[in-house]
TrEMBL record:
<feature type="binding site">
    <location>
        <position position="47"/>
    </location>
    <ligand>
        <name>substrate</name>
    </ligand>
</feature>
<comment type="pathway">
    <text>Amino-acid biosynthesis; L-threonine biosynthesis; L-threonine from L-aspartate: step 1/5.</text>
</comment>
<feature type="binding site">
    <location>
        <position position="184"/>
    </location>
    <ligand>
        <name>ATP</name>
    </ligand>
</feature>
<dbReference type="InterPro" id="IPR002912">
    <property type="entry name" value="ACT_dom"/>
</dbReference>
<keyword id="KW-0220">Diaminopimelate biosynthesis</keyword>
<dbReference type="GO" id="GO:0009089">
    <property type="term" value="P:lysine biosynthetic process via diaminopimelate"/>
</dbReference>
<keyword id="KW-0418">Kinase</keyword>
<comment type="pathway">
    <text>Amino-acid biosynthesis; L-methionine biosynthesis via de novo pathway; L-homoserine from L-aspartate: step 1/3.</text>
</comment>
<feature type="domain" description="ACT">
    <location>
        <begin position="265"/>
        <end position="341"/>
    </location>
</feature>
<comment type="function">
    <text>Catalyzes the phosphorylation of the beta-carboxyl group of aspartic acid with ATP to yield 4-phospho-L-aspartate, which is involved in the branched biosynthetic pathway leading to the biosynthesis of amino acids threonine, isoleucine and methionine.</text>
</comment>
<dbReference type="InterPro" id="IPR001341">
    <property type="entry name" value="Asp_kinase"/>
</dbReference>
<keyword id="KW-0547">Nucleotide-binding</keyword>
<feature type="domain" description="ACT">
    <location>
        <begin position="347"/>
        <end position="409"/>
    </location>
</feature>
<dbReference type="GO" id="GO:0005829">
    <property type="term" value="C:cytosol"/>
</dbReference>
<keyword id="KW-0028">Amino-acid biosynthesis</keyword>
<keyword id="KW-0457">Lysine biosynthesis</keyword>
<dbReference type="InterPro" id="IPR045865">
    <property type="entry name" value="ACT-like_dom_sf"/>
</dbReference>
């Protein structure tokens, strides 16, 4: 007997026919005593459709009501998939995030899972049901529904797997594993058999959309292996786990990531005195706006003034304009320039520790194809460059060629 948590993304459940294929596959592979928990996203582009509906309402801050709206997408998916299993003769039940015991904290649209109390899930499994849980959502301490941000269904699945001590968490998606680069940008990308949690977390944090960073953190916390694989084939995918044992461990760089949801904000001509940076970033933090790359430089012509340049997610740009605009109205800031035509490209690999020249190779690859680097940031296992969004494809291809050549999987 084994306990499996399986997550299916929006493309996997985009139609009722695909749901039937999923249900048939699970029943075909299921052994008699296996316990199955399924976490699903909203069907296809339905979340985008709901956002478009909300966009028809005059622009106000709709945090709570937006979450009430968006959470319905997953509820459609879970109910239809439960009906599908029942039509095939298998007992199944659908549960919302709240019913499954997913407890969150934080703010609407960006909530974090604090705790999982899966008693109802265990109870339904003991009754012989396949349990289908709405991803992307949980409940706040005041009882309101809250959504978990992009990729939140992954976090739901991994957290449930950890809290329930599942044997494995399987993330089914429209790609067949984790690649050395996004195949949409790089035709020579190589599928990895395995990758460490730390490397996957860094790739996810830097924009690799295959996994949400929080879900990888939860996998690390619960020591749950995560198997990323395709909904549409039976092929093995990529295992995300604490340590790698395969020969690819010798690869210096494990992956190239891109984040095209990046905006640059330049706060110019601020007084070069203690406390100014704190004022700017505290105001942003109070509105739950995450800041990524940061550069502060004194102007050569005037040591009394400095420029603060940083990046945020472009979905936070409207809120950032409002926050910084208030500081401008109070005459605490003067000139602010916003640019949402930015992207970040990054290399990640534990192998770069103690390997000189890795950053230089990356910069050289970008330079040879005419990609200008605007900001650089580093960590122990990554190097990131801010570039113009139009240059993403050639940047990814150039970096990948530098470290992998043109070999394919």
């Amino acid at each position: 007997m084994a306990l499996y948590v399986k997550k299916f993304g929006g493309s996997s459940v985009a139609t009722t026919e695909r749901m039937k294929n999923i249900a048939s596959r699970i029943l075909r592979e299921k052994h008699d005593n296996d316990k199955i928990v399924i976490v699903v996203s909203a069907m296809g582009d339905s979340t985008d459709d709901l956002l478009a509906l909300a966009g028809q309402v005059p622009s106000l801050r709709h945090g709570r009501e937006m979450d009430m709206l968006l959470s319905t997408g997953e509820q459609v998916s879970i109910s239809l998939l439960a009906m599908t299993f029942k039509s095939l003769g298998a007992p199944a039940i659908s549960l919302t995030g709240m019913q499954a015991g997913v407890f969150c904290s934080g703010t609407h649209g960006k909530a974090l899972i604090d705790d999982i109390k899966p008693e109802r899930v265990f109870s339904e499994l003991e009754k012989g049901n396949i349990v289908i849980v709405a991803g992307f959502q949980g409940v706040l301490p005041n009882g309101d529904v809250a959504t978990l941000g992009r990729g939140g269904s992954d976090a739901t699945a991994v957290a449930l797997a950890g809290a329930m001590h599942a044997d494995v968490c399987e993330i089914f998606t429209d790609v067949d594993g984790v690649y050395s680069a996004d195949p949409r940008y790089c035709p020579h990308a190589v599928k990895m058999q395995e990758i460490t949690n730390i490397e996957m977390l860094e790739l996810a944090r830097l924009g690799a959309g295959i996994m949400q960073p929080r879900s990888v953190e939860l996998g690390m916390h619960y020591h749950i292996p995560i198997h990323v694989r395709s909904t549409f084939t039976d092929d093995e995918g990529t295992i995300i786990q604490e340590e790698c044992v395969m020969e690819r461990k010798r690869q210096i760089i494990k992956g190239v990531a891109q984040d095209t949801h990046t905006a640059r904000i330049s706060v110019l001509n601020v007084k070069n005195v203690p406390g100014v940076a704190h004022m700017v970033f505290e105001a942003l933090a109070d509105e739950h706006i995450d800041v990524d790359m940061i550069v502060q430089s004194v102007q050569r012509s005037n040591d009394d003034l400095t420029d603060i340049i940083f990046t945020i997610t472009d979905t936070d740009l409207e809120d950032a304009r409002r926050v910084l605009g208030e500081l401008q109205s109070q005459e605490k800031l003067t000139t602010i320039i916003y640019d949402d035509n930015m992207a970040k490209v990054s290399i990640v690999g534990a192998g770069m520790l103690g390997t000189p020249g890795v950053a230089a190779r990356m910069f050289g690859a970008l330079g040879r194809v005419g990609v200008n680097i605007l900001i650089v940031s580093t960590s122990e296992i990554s190097v990131s460059c801010l570039i113009n969004r139009d240059d993403v494809a050639k940047a990814i291809q150039a970096i990948h060629k530098e470290f992998w050549g043109n070999k394919t999987a």
